[in-house]
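Q: Entry one of two.
A:
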Amino acid sequence: MHIKTVICDIDGTLMAPGGGLYVSEQVKQKMIDLQEKGILIILASARIFQGVLPLAYQIEMDKYGGYILSSNGTYAYDMKHKKMLFCEGIQKEDAFEMWNLCRKEGVDFGIAQPSCMVASGFSTGFYQDHFNCDIDFMITTRPQEHVDKEISKCMVSSNKEKIDIAYPVLKENIESKYPYVVVRSTDTVLDIVKKGCGKKEGLQKLMTSVHLSFDEAAAIGDGNSDALMIQESVFGATLENGSALCKQYADMITPSYKEDGCLAFFEKIMDL
């Protein structure tokens, strides 16, 4: 088995869920060691791009090469050449309509832009997510004046109680009218992305475009959105905190993120 590429989820895998911008020094060094051995790293996360980029710089992917797949698989970026490879985006007009729909439901709406998150408010979900993203929030009642670039995804934020009520309503109204899906990412945040997008689909498009193969890739993740990339890769791993579906497909189960269990996976890859 020859591994050329390692695909890593972030939250619940490389660090605690919502653990901030950076991994521990031990994880950082092991990921640099992998790259020094000639193994390419792909960071695949539901986070928006600005929540993944600081970590990519921490582990020196700009030096060694590698790719970011962010926003639930909709946005791909080449670290070495510092350029976007693709964005399976949301149309501006649709985003503005969904903004109004969410405001009527009493929850905040955010539009992910390269320079900032254009949002209707800074409620609980956005406040918590801000800890994981190196991005400013532009709070406005006039999103049309501030949205001028590609939209990788939209987000809905509030407290848990309001999201509990709004989620089924928004899911039904948005998915029946627009080519997007509404996913509950946390108790206080919903993600809205293009239908047919996900980590597996994004990885397939990314890897095809840069001539990589799952037959020479290893993957590690903890959530159901990671399960298919674990299944597709020639060697897949999850952690003790991983979902039942991840454990079903995994070739290896490591200790939990609380014990930096990903280190055991990295050490295994170094020995293959």
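Q: Entry two of two.
A:
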Amino acid sequence: MYGEKLKFFFLVMVLCLSMRQIAQSEEVTSAAYTDYPPFTADYLEGGGFAIVLATEAFKREGFVVKHSWMPWVRGATLVEKGVVDFTLPYYFTHKRTSIFEYSEPIYSIYIRAYGRRGSGENVTSIEGLEGKTICHPRGYANPVYLQNLFDTGRATLRRPMDMEQCLKLTLSKRVDYFLSSPEVWKGSLERLSLSEDEFEELSFNVQVNRLYLVFGKSNPRAPKLVSAFNSGLEKMSADGSLRKLVEKYDIDVRFVDPLN
């Protein structure tokens, strides 16, 4: 009887300590797009690599992440206004530095152009995309050179809601190419049950970007939150937990910036 009471006492103590720890943790809110695998996706365990990484990094610094799914543009707008603390993962652009604070980079991502296999075209450089119709989903940042082509009417931009629509538009010959990273477009292939053989990847990089967490400059907590995430990320890199997370999501460790 005494042993059972002792076990119950310790159980109550553990629960009280856990509740106290949760109560002492500060909440931080995040938003991300539902379909950017393997980084953010509502069908992946934990919401994807980037969300699990952010959650764990903040946890190391005493924060609890409360996450919401929403379109790119809406999430960015709410972060800009300070309604939501951060969104992820985002490319760096000079234009965005006026409204966002950036974390340390978490991944280097290679953007390429993909077309329908057997189209008969032989595009070997980014300049060869001039005069083409190119698909890049709404909310994705356009590579600088291509943005110039779009702005001057030397190429046509299509902006559907998601990457899966870009793949469909390419196969139906309504666009010539779509832009993506190898990681993201393969996730879209799986969702659509399509084969890589139906597409061809052009041989050059359209642009190399890094992925970050971004925080609104209008948010008075932004500097503290950026510092907390960076500190947690550094700890994860040092103790090996970041590498284990990379392996779990089958991500190429060569492109995980904190590990290189």
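A: Comment on entry two: Residues 95 and 141 are 11 Å apart (CA to CA). The chain has eight helices and twelve strands.
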